[in-house]
Design brief:
Helix content: 40-55%
Strand order of the largest sheet: 1-2-3
Strand content: 5-15%
Shape: globular
Radius of gyration: 25 Å
Length: 250
């Protein structure tokens, strides 16, 4: 037996309906198509994303981003050496502990200190901003790496963005600036490497706006540049959080 055709949705039924019914049907179809295009087309075509608003954002972070100079010819990494930034080689407050312990003390909870140094963190709990995981930190040869200190704007990224022209004092300041440092999951930090926001974002989506805003704040503080693709990626993230502010510098 031949399948009975559903006359409700047939062309004949459409033609035989009233003008008002036909108009309403076309409006519904147009709305469905429009919403679908608006949601999915920016993912397939970056130019279309610009037209449909995927690359627009508001707020202090977005406004500050617009002040950063765009430099598309990335500075070569020739001459780059992580040691040039002197990470962990300074002790500005003279307490005998380097910046790693200071960031651990700032970002971890339930902290216990080593008996040998009152400022050296022995253990604590990290609510990791990059993955959302709870990490129980314990200082040790095999366990310390579970929590690493990330340069939010990576040192190599900074080198390519203008730090290659800095004097040693400014590079040391950047390399040990708490504003650019976060205690994070070790594996996530390794996965990020030296990537900009165009190539890596935190797994925890709810933290991405704060992460990008901090990168913008750091780049503005040190007059570093962004590339076109990096800037677009930042705006695309900020588009989802209107009014995003820059984090306080502390």
């Amino acid at each position: 037996m031949a399948r009975r055709r559903n006359s409700r949705y047939s062309p004949a039924a459409f033609r035989s309906s009233s003008p008002t019914e036909r108009f309403l049907t076309l409006v519904v179809i147009a709305l469905i198509v429009g919403v679908t295009v608006g949601l999915f087309l920016p993912d397939f075509n970056k130019d279309t994303g610009s037209v449909t608003g995927a690359y627009t954002a508001t707020g202090d972070a977005a406004q500050t981003l617009q002040t950063l100079r765009v430099h598309n010819d990335d500075y070569k990494t020739t001459g780059y050496d992580r040691a040039l930034f002197g990470y962990r080689s300074t002790d500005d407050d003279g307490d005998g502990c380097d910046v790693r312990d200071e960031i651990l003390a700032r970002d971890l909870k339930e902290i216990r200190y080593s008996s040998s140094k009152s400022c050296q963190v022995r253990s604590g709990v990290l609510n990791d901003p990059y993955t959302g995981k709870t990490i129980y930190f314990l200082r040790g040869m095999k366990t310390s790496r579970d929590v690493q200190i990330d340069h939010v704007v990576a040192l190599e990224n900074a080198w390519r963005s203008g730090a290659n022209t800095w004097a040693s004092k400014q590079r040391y300041s950047f390399g040990n600036d708490p504003y650019n440092l976060l205690a994070v999951d070790g594996d996530a930090n390794s996965d990020k490497g030296s990537s900009s926001a165009a190539y890596w974002l935190p797994e925890q989506q709810s933290y991405r706006c704060s992460y990008v805003a901090r990168q913008i704040g750091v780049k503005a503080k040190y007059s570093l540049t962004v590339t076109t693709v990096e800037k677009k990626a930042m705006i695309a993230v900020l588009h989802s959080c209107p009014g995003q502010v820059l984090p306080a510098d502390r």
